[in-house]
Amino acid sequence: MAYAQIRTSNVHPVERAASVIGGGLLAFAGLRKRSVGGGVMAATGAEMLRRGLTGKCYLYQALGMRTAATGQGEKTTSVPYELGVRVSESITIDQPRAAVYAFWRELTNLPKFMKHLKSVENRGGNRSHWVVEGPAGVDVEWDAEIVSEVQNKRIAWRSLEGSSVDSAGSVRFRAAKRGSATVVEVNLQYNPPAGAVGAWVAKILGSDPHREIRADLGSLKNHLEASGTPELAHMGD
């Protein structure tokens, strides 16, 4: 896969150091194994070394985020690269890109297709308050903000510092090759906390978080492609 060039460092110095140390150890262990599995370990370690030495992370670039400070007030992701779970899924929806983007950008629409999401409240300044139905009927809540946005193309977000659930991600919208359909691609990174809340987050995402995200995207597709969907009635190309 070809990647666009990253012009500046987007990885925090602490993460860079961890990548160099961890990558070096992993690459060394992989080379000693002299097997297919060892080769995978060595390749993974080499990529971690590259990331640590250059300070440039392709995943952060895809999410439209960074952990390295810029000195210009640019927002950073709240989830360290080496921690948590990373998920990438996509789906094609038979609706114009502008309409799909506008539906997602109105964050209060998200609970309509995200199974475990109870509500999203807009709080101004690109910030929002998220509520999911947690364990024993107790809601789990956190605040998030949109950190990068290109109209009709991309929305990127992260949870705010101190939130009960650390997450960051982006959703991209691009025209499909056929007709007026839209390809929606979601990249998500999350780090479930320890304790009861963390156990619950792991439970609702199951052993296969890709499947859960895929199911939510399938619900989005069904919702937007349903005949007479009112939310899309006033949205043009």
Q: Mind explaining what this structure looks like?
A:
This protein is an alpha+beta fold. It has two domains: about 1-55; about 85-230, START domain (Alpha-D-Glucose-1,6-Bisphosphate, Chain A, domain 4). The chain has six helices and seven strands; from the N terminus they run αααβαββββββαα. Strands 1-7-6-5-4-3-2 form a seven-stranded antiparallel sheet, covered by helices on one side. Helix 1 (about 15-35) packs antiparallel against helix 2 (about 35-55). It is globular, with a radius of gyration of 19 Å.
CATH class division of the largest domain: Alpha Beta
Major sheet: 7 strands, antiparallel
What is the CATH-assigned architecture of the largest domain?
A: 2-Layer Sandwich
Largest sheet, order of strands side by side?
1-7-6-5-4-3-2
- Which strand-content bin applies to the residues? 25-35%
Rg from Cα: 19 Å
Please report the number of helical segments. 6
Q: Quick one: how many beta strands?
A: 7
Spans of 5+ residues with little confidence (pLDDT < 50)? 1-5, 70-82, 194-200
* Coarse morphology: globular
CATH homologous superfamily label of the largest domain: START domain
Q: Return the structural class.
A: alpha+beta
Number of domains: 2
The secondary-structure element order is: HHHEHEEEEEEHH
Average pLDDT number = 75
Annotation keywords:
seven-stranded antiparallel sheet; alpha+beta; 237 residues; globular; Alpha-D-Glucose-1,6-Bisphosphate, Chain A, domain 4; 6 helices
